[in-house]
Design brief:
- This protein is an alpha/beta fold and 347 residues long.
- It is 55% helix and 9% strand.
- The protein has 18 helices and seven strands.
- It has a five-stranded parallel β-sheet with strand order 2-3-4-1-5, with helices on both faces. A two-stranded parallel ribbon has the order 6-7.
- Helix 4 (66-74) links the parallel strand 2 and strand 3 (83-88).
- Helix 12 (218-226) packs antiparallel against helix 13 (230-242), helix 13 packs antiparallel against helix 18 and helix 17 runs antiparallel to helix 18 (327-339).
- It is elongated, with a radius of gyration of 26 Å.
């Protein structure tokens, strides 16, 4: 969707709701449903519980004719200054369905807030959108979280909940949660409730309250790989095999691939100073850089190329191409190849 005249962030809309300085129409769209659902809940909370039967209307697009939405929008609240009309799940409708809401945008009802929700990367209904833009509508895109900024978002959530977190704890949570924002908030809120305000999330507290092993996880595996420490690597792999539900091979191999990809960037970084290497591999803590500087000592460029090739081969074999081995056996073989790589690359 092209940039809109009045786009706002999640926190800006939250602030507007708290202050009561509301636009006549809100267009919420994007691939990350968490923030859309969160804002919808806050719009619902504009109406006191006792008044919701009269002044809060929540429709699902697949169940309602747009003319009914228009008629509701044009009505006036009962014994209140405001009513809220929410139209959900419009992504499944044809553009002409959305365009039938144009009357609302062209005939603003100052007593009604209209919230239109799409779940997807783009919106529909060019006529309605143009009219809404002209009427001063607010547009919000809820973007899917990307791997590259997931750590930053996780830290922000931790701080929002009044907590601190150790580097290893952050890595453990990120490994467990992935890029699921809803799960991030859920797990951090659980820890905030258990640990209390101002507490620090440690690997021990994560192990105790979430159930992730502080000693046998992908963070510890990467640390052991960086040191080429077979005595530490293989017990971790055995633990993964014994606890497959919490340690899927696909996540482990993606983590290893990410590490060696960044190790390659570090080898070719023009600035080998600590700050230069931190920028090259995208880490924020000096202590996190140690994993890469140790890896650079233990794996030269040719070794890294050989390992990345072995990872690609494992991916193919895990899909049943040229192998019938169990995926954890394949992971065990990969560790052996990493520990014994010599950088023999055929060009």
């Amino acid at each position: 969707m092209a940039a809109q005249a009045n786009t706002k962030t999640f926190s800006e809309i939250q602030s507007d709701i708290k202050r009561g300085t509301l636009a006549p129409i809100y267009i919420l769209y994007g691939e990350e449903s968490y923030f859309i659902d969160k804002l919808v809940k806050e719009f619902e909370n504009l109406i006191p519980e006792a008044d919701r039967g009269f002044n809060l209307y929540s429709f699902y697009a697949q169940e309602i004719d747009p003319q009914k939405v228009v008629a509701t929008y044009q009505s006036y609240p009962m014994m209140s200054e405001r009513q809220v009309v929410i139209l959900r799940e419009t992504q499944g409708q044809q553009p002409k369905y959305i365009d039938r809401l144009t009357f609302c945008a062209e005939n603003i009802n100052p007593a009604t807030v209209l919230v239109v929700c799409y779940r997807g990367a783009s919106t529909k209904g060019a006529t309605f959108l143009a009219a809404a833009k002209k009427a001063g509508a607010v547009f919000f895109e809820s973007k899917r979280l990307k791997e590259g900024n997931a750590d930053t978002v996780m830290e922000k959530i931790v701080k929002e909940k009044g907590l601190n977190i150790e580097r290893k704890g952050l890595a453990m949570l990120r490994e467990y949660i992935g890029v699921d924002i809803s799960k991030m908030y859920g797990e951090v809120e659980k820890l905030a409730f258990i640990l209390g305000p101002g507490a620090t999330i440690t690997p021990e507290s994560i192990e105790q309250h979430i159930g992730i092993s502080k000693d046998f996880n992908n963070f510890e595996l990467i640390e052991a790989i960086a040191d080429r420490n077979g005595a530490r690597i293989f017990p971790i792999i055995r633990y993964f095999q014994q606890n497959p539900k919490n340690n899927p091979v696909v996540v482990t191999t993606a983590t290893i691939f990410n590490y060696f990809s960044k190790l390659m960037m570090a080898h070719f970084a023009p600035d080998k100073s600590p700050s230069g290497l931190m920028a090259a591999v995208g880490v924020k803590w000096q202590s996190a850089l140690s994993t890469y500087t140790r890896g650079m000592r233990n794996y030269n460029v040719y070794m890294v190329i050989e390992i990345i090739s072995a990872l690609r081969e494992l991916d193919t074999r895990s899909k049943g191409v040229g192998s019938r081995q169990n995926e954890y056996d394949l992971l065990h073989d990969l560790m052996f190849r990493i520990l014994n790589c010599r950088g023999r690359v055929t060009i």
